[in-house]
Design a protein that fits this description.
Rossmann fold; 6-stranded parallel β-sheet; 3 domains; homodimer; 15 strands; alpha/beta; Histidinol_DH_monofunct (chains A, B); 430 residues; 17 helices
């Protein structure tokens, strides 16, 4: 199969790598315009707009917004009806995701300054969050667990999930996962109209404080538009993997690891970086051999051809430097002494350490979240986590004596800024 | 002076409070369109666009982008030339901001699961951040300290500051603060063009990983547009204060505390909530008396008339509930036992505890950041802090034995999701 071959020794390496990575997700102007109209419509007409838009976009025949609600018993039944082996796997995954999330909880702090004043930070959970779950072919129960469990661990009061049901169809495993994760309310609603309803509320859909979860271009544009009115997690782009290999792994394993990203979609990015040219050839051969076994071989082939790459580097330090430039969502360190590379990795959403840690473990059950920064956002953002469902308030408590020196400092700077009420308010305590 | 008077016992209380709060900052369509064009122009023409746009919007006469740079010596000179008393105040403020910030540093963690696998989180600083500082009348040295110091404490490699110089004028105190805070590079650049340059880079301006700092409607719209390509802190709205009083504070102090928000601008929001109707009257009288002393009395009067309110409540519990609805940027607890109220405060950017802790301390020198969530964003977001300049990478390291049970779980869920490459990649390690 076709795949880009790059070598850091080549004069055009930088340009070729940049070209491969150049695909920031940007919404077209028509998408933005359509989304703005949908949001305005939902704000103005509430439930009536939701019913109309859902009937149109999801081919439903709703007569009232009440029909959007999926009752708790329906979710319970979906759970009960699940294949016991799958139920067991989901339960084990949920337990591990919860255990990891417990480690992420933010803690407040307080200390006393040299003047006797108390300073600190108070941490509180969000009241209500909205969880967007894509419908149709990309309706993944694992996403429900990954988004809902950290919110529950954070102490969020109410989790509201929306999932479109195109043509009325709903993935029962997604409903079962919502039951397992303890989602409070579920509505069969999708697209920009779902985001607008969660941000502004309608008669039927409660407004939330933050909206998390992936979606298509319309959902992404809607999240960008309502950001500020509510919090959002991030704008999700196509999935990515970088594997750094010393050439000593089974090439068949590495080929399948690359495919596990490639099968997500034709715009997924799967990159292998190795110090061993012969190993790159062996992985290429293993890809040829193994692709035929996959039901999604067609998607994989396009993805690997368009966005896949085998990169030859001089040494593992250079491998880390190239990986840092990519700032991948997922990074596998398939080398002998992976811990030695860790301090050199500056940007990566999740790091899979050693030959026995494939990225797929992280997607389902290792424990850390599978919602990770994409499109180089690992340079500045975080995996989804408990901390995304908590927020901090600064605490300041002055004693009458401790206030005096602060009054002098604040007064002086406020004078310089021409803010006399600030200065006077401070000096009132002097 | 005129101010809204509300009472929770009134039938129309909810409606009147909602009307008072209804002012989510939303950019007009023309602003968005203009900003999109500016961003496209800067991306396409780089420095040439910056020179043109800056000459046009800031009335400059630049001939090359190199003139945008403010050399290190210029900042050093600004610092040296400062009034020693102001220099001392800024130094003390910086020391306190730094000391508080040290407490906010994120820490990584690692633990071993029941199977012998290692799970954890690695924390790293951002490489390069951009700091937007408004120019002209709202050029505040305190903002430079509040934005730059946490980034420095986080370990950010390079801090790039942009500040417009309308008509070539630059506030020397702002430059001095940049010197004190250890800003690495300064450019006299503002508006959407500054945000575009920081997000995409030009020949002269380096691209950054995150852009922080307040700005006007154009800056806010530009930050929203580049979000995803780079990180942003938040979309800043008008300033807000809520004071909860039991009626036993000096009404003149409370009046001036309300004014310290009101003087920021005509759209600032200053709200006093009290259990004591007579105290509300006394504060109103004190406002009448004290406003005349202020150079910005005109702004204060409009702000208090349009967005100010004195709210009578039944008890302090109700005061907290009303405050939680407002989710204010700043909250003063001017009561006898303020600590008893803390657990009841769910949403507030910063909480000023007790009668001797005016909000103005927090603006300058208490230690906690003065960049705080506005427009009810305290429901879901954080004060600016060290954590905004750090990010997390998940860590997963399986042993060959620990991998086997995970392979079974992941394989089974991947089967259910129809992702066979995921399933096979996991099972390769079984």
């Amino acid at each position: 199969m076709q795949v880009h071959r790059l070598d850091t020794r080549d004069a055009d390496f930088d340009a070729r790598l940049d070209a491969l990575l150049d695909r920031a997700p940007e919404a077209g102007a028509e998408v933005v315009r359509a989304v703005d109209q949908i949001i305005a419509d939902v704000r103005q007409r509430g439930d009536a707009a939701l019913v109309e838009l859902t009937n149109r976009f999801d081919r439903r025949t709703l007569t009232s917004a009440a029909e959007l609600s999926v009752p708790r018993e329906t979710r319970q039944h979906a759970w009960d009806a699940l294949d016991p082996a799958l139920r067991d796997a989901l339960e084990q995954a949920a337990t591990r995701i919860r255990a990891y999330a417990e480690h992420q909880k933010l803690q407040g702090f307080e200390f006393t300054d040299g003047l006797g004043n108390r300073l600190g930070q108070q941490v509180t959970p969000l009241d209500r969050v909205g969880l967007y779950v894509p419908g149709g072919k990309a309706a993944y129960p694992s996403s429900v667990l990954m988004n809902a469990i950290p919110a529950r661990v954070a102490g969020v009061d109410e989790i509201v999930m929306v999932v479109p049901a195109p043509g009325g169809e709903l993935n029962p495993v997604v409903l079962a996962a919502a039951h397992l994760a303890g989602v409070d309310r579920v509505f069969t609603l999708g697209g920009a109209q779902a985001v607008a309803a969660l941000a502004y509320g309608t008669q039927t859909i409660p407004s939330v404080d933050k909206i998390v979860g992936p979606g298509n271009a319309f959902v992404a544009a809607a999240k960008r538009a309502v950001f500020g009115k509510v919090g959002i997690d991030s704008i999700a782009g196509p999935s990515e993997i970088v594997v750094i290999s010393d050439g000593a792994s089974d090439p068949r394993w590495i080929a399948m690891d690359l495919f596990s990203q490639a099968e997500h979609g034709e715009d997924s990015e799967s990159i292998l970086i190795s110090t061993d040219a012969a190993f790159l050839d062996r992985v290429a051969a293993a890809m040829d051999e193994r692709v035929a076994t996959l039901p999604r071989a067609g998607i994989v082939e396009v993805s690997i051809r368009e966005r896949g790459a085998l990169i030859l580097v001089r040494d593992l330090d250079e491998a880390c430097a190239v990986s840092n430039r990519i700032a991948p969502e997922h990074l596998e360190l398939a080398v002998d002494a992976p811990r030695a590379l860790l301090p050199k990795i500056r940007h990566a959403g999740a790091i899979f350490i050693g030959r026995h840690t494939p990225e797929a473990f992280g997607d389902y059950c290792a424990g850390p979240n599978h919602v990770l920064p994409t499109s180089r956002a690992a340079r500045f953002s975080n995996p989804l986590g408990v901390y995304e469902f908590q927020k901090r308030s600064s605490l300041i408590e002055c004693t009458p004596e401790g206030a005096r020196p602060l009054a002098a400092i604040a007064g002086r700077i406020a004078d310089a800024e021409g803010l006399q009420a600030h200065a006077q308010s401070a000096r009132d305590r002097a």
